[in-house]
Amino acid sequence: MTAVTREDELSSGKWRCDADYRNPLDSTVPSPEDRPPLCGEREFAALLEGMVAEFAPRVFAVVQEYGDRVDGRIAAWGIAFADHVEVVDVDGCSRMHLRSPESALRGFSWGRHITARLVWVTRAAATPCDDG
User: What backbone phi and psi angles, to 5 degrees, belong to 29?
Assistant: First the structure.
């Protein structure tokens, strides 16, 4: 038995992108063929960039602190959307869907010696790279 690869499917026409091909998903979205572009490519790219900047979720880390500032480590990363939060531990073993960033802290504190805190990402605090 011969294995069929993606390249075989592409060359056979199964995954065609020519003008005659009709994707079944196209029936669920109105065709934009009769609508002109909103603006030129540069202006459209700038509009998209502004939209992304305005609506981007905030990124934070859940940091575990050992003792009273004896040591610390990043335990998880989070993304705060307007109505919920997604958190993934750095090992990739656990993912949480929560109502607030603070809700993640309970899962990363451990007894009296390890406490968790939120640290919001700020680009200004990043360590400059040394290309020297």
Answer: -130, 130
DSSP character at residue 13: T
> What is the tens place of the pLDDT at every residue in 49-61?
999 999 999 999 9
Q: What is the dihedral of CA 39, 44, 48, 51, to 10 degrees?
A: -40
100 neighbors 81 (Cβ within 8 angstroms) = no
Gap between the Cα atoms of 77 and 87, Å rounded: 6
The model's pTM = 0.68
Q: Give the C-alpha distances (Å, rounded to integers) separating 125 from 56, 57, 70.
A: 19, 18, 21
Residues 6+ apart with CB under 8 A from 99: 84, 85
CB 86 within 8 A of CB 100: no
Task: Read off the amino acid at residue 72.
Answer: G
Residue 74's pLDDT is 98
What sign has the CA pseudo-torsion 98, 80, 83, 48? negative
Q: Which residue, 76, 56, 79, is CA-closest to 64?
A: 76
Euclidean distance between the first and the last CA atom of the chain, given in angstroms as a whole number = 56
